[in-house]
């Protein structure tokens, strides 16, 4: 078991799971004991630490209760012994100091300080780095209000700063001036009175060739100390300042040179590498763009490393000012005044020096990490390429330069599909480095694929996740991806700060955005699955014209992806920007606008889904499936009335796409919130909500029937309600002729089906053909499909084959997988009746395959019933019984279609029982089948089951 106070107070079990230790007072008690782990703490200090010096008289008894609860919680985590012991002197928490983060930090800090004093800078950096990694936030963060916590938190913060300063000292000794010059300004700003940090920043800047900036740090320190404390800088800081004044020019900043050597294998970019090399053979300016962590730098290094010309690599990440770009290139190229032709008007400016130094050289210049100085790089690149004909430039940036002659190569995330895909190969390669022998196998391939998919195929994120296998299992890594920024927080210590953690990678891009760009990026996170331009403008606030420009900027800066008229974010970017939206306090307001927009869209689409533009509108709604899902879930909790309207407006789309079950949880939540009575004017919407809830809970069936009966005499606005009434209660024809064409066609279909059920073919066929003509005229493919299925049962074999073929084609074009499955079963039934068992078997198997895709057991039940029929006809009785049983388990009860499937399953089981000479079983099956047939008024089925039951009874006599 491990314990932590360097952040929130936490306990982790041996398998890495978080252990619940109770409320604030229990955590405060545990914190005091952890700070004194291995030492007995008397009762009085514990009481005062929890309740203060003026503790109430019953505090000692309350302490005993807190100790008992804490002991039980620690015991529930699987501990075999009693860690929390009581003796005459007080309470003792038994814990190895290395299992408590604060004591481990203190040990590592002491060892690191001793290594530093001994000149072992590598060892010191490693030990001190490990000590700092133990910090998860401000010490005692969740118990800071406890009486004991303030003083202890201040002491621990001093410990952290001391470790940090020692680590900086070790890194300076290792020559990491360049990185520290980028990191330390933010730390110094947070602790402006820490003179040791000021001196370290000055040394880092001086060692990076930035003497003037180093001297400015001293002047700022002098001013701040005088204003805040009324004192002068210490002698130690003054000595650093004096040494710099005497030392002369600072050494040149080492930001460039040849291609950097790499320490890991290059995985999954062969196609990109080939294209970039081809572009470099044809073009003089190539820019690799893409989001942070996608692998632009690595791809540039690999491409440059295969060049025959001279290559100079310049990392611009640490530059704080675009004006320093020319000098950074001069340093990387090794240019000096003495080697250049002097200008008659005086010294050459930096750009002229670059032109003079590059004019006669065949060089590939790689400019890495340009996004924060893109304007200056663009201007310099234009001048250099115009003046130096043998110069080629390869740029990496999250944003294009935007100049004439630039060729872009967007670097995509690693592919995620296919066996052994590049993302999985990268994960396996990096995982093997921390867990030797790790391989992607059949046992873990799905988990690896899910991790890579959740991380968008971003190489940096995948590498960080793989590195966590050093201390976590694959399953634990996957389970923690919901908090990806915390999980992926341990990167390469030697990397630039903005590349060490996933949060810093995205945060760098965020900080480069303007305020309007940040606002739009944050608000876009309410969308799920992307947004159209119109939706983004309506929901996120700017006018459509402004949105066009801001979205273009976000695409250029690799925060947003564009394609197919939609704008999307990678999940990692989405998660970061969503945090910013929550911080701004706008989330609920933007979610409300999002839900209102998609309600308007659903209501506009609803009548169009029954006309000639049906397919186009279905495709449009399909593209917004994630947004509808998000809007429904938000509305169910925050605005139930809007939720009812949205659920109802989407009901016909759900019917066509087979989605009612997907919306079950939302409907159930709405019913709990709203209660037993519908809001005024929303009776139909409430009934539809009950219907969706009934998709998973048959207890709602009677409630739904009652509500449908209540609406039976009213003109129904929602076609889905008419279909529900038809499916649950059988055909019921309104006395009055409906006014709209769709309702007239549907009424004709109901009349025809009523005739079919009553055995009245003369009534059924004309009504169905009238319905078919009506649906064809208005262009409703669903209606045509539904009627074709009914007419196929009345037609001769030739016409039936044609009707079924048209129905199957329509189902495919509609994308109605559930309907397609049922049609395949119907077609297979027809082939079975004709004695064509082999083609029937193939159709049933296709139906089972499609049914699996729908995820609806009821749909699969019909196909399994068909396979069972074939097995029974072949005399394979055990196989038939098994298939019938599987079908029966998956068959629902709520709809007429499900009831008829159940009827056929029971009838088939009766036949199997007869063949096995089990009269009682046969009789039971036939009786159940007969009850279903009578309940739905199906005369042929009623007669068939009654005859079968009579035959069994006759043989029994």
UniProtKB/TrEMBL annotation:
| Keywords recorded for this protein, A-Z | DNA-binding
Regions recorded as binding DNA: 1-95
Alphabetically, the GO molecular function entries are: ATP hydrolysis activity; DNA binding
Q: Which domain of life is it from?
A: Bacteria
Q: Which Pfam families match?
A: AAA_22, BTAD, HTH_77
Name the chain's protein. SARP family transcriptional regulator
Check the record and name the SMART domains matching this protein: BTAD, TPR, Trans_reg_C
Q: Which InterPro entries does this chain map to?
A: AAA_22 (IPR049945), BTAD (IPR005158), HTH_77 (IPR058852), OmpR/PhoB-type_DNA-bd (IPR001867), P-loop_NTPase (IPR027417), Sig_transdc_resp-reg_C-effctor (IPR016032), TPR-like_helical_dom_sf (IPR011990), TPR_rpt (IPR019734)
User: Which terms does the UniProt entry file under GO BP?
Assistant: phosphorelay signal transduction system; regulation of DNA-templated transcription
Q: What is stated as this protein's family in its record?
A: Belongs to the AfsR/DnrI/RedD regulatory family.
> Which organism does this sequence originate in?
Nonomuraea glycinis
- Please state every residue range assigned to the domain named OmpR/PhoB-type: 1-95
